[in-house]
Amino acid sequence: METVITISGADKAGSLAGLVVFLTRKGYTVKGQKVTELPSGARLLKIRLGLAQVDKEKLAAEIKALNYTGMYAVKMTPAAEPAATGISLPPATLGQSVFIVSAVVLVVLLAFSAWRSQRSVMADL
What we know:
Helices cover 44% and strands 17% of the residues. The chain is of the alpha+beta class.
């Protein structure tokens, strides 16, 4: 015996995957899923669970508690004054610094590789 749950209002991308992961982590066996487009443009999700009896009220409350728009987002509130810790660089300067350091590391590695290959060629002679 299986249970089919129907969920509407999950129009955001990744909502089906998020629900399947959520249900799997809660211990439910997901047997199948189907997305249906309604004429209004909304999506209707149907998920088959491999259980005969499900506490529908508890499951409905847990699903309603999910926030699909911010499922993976973090809500941040800016502080009045940022704490002065470490070095503070403007974005352009930071990007240039990263580029220069990366270029120097690559040149050093290239020079070392050329020196090592030349040394191995000389040793073979």
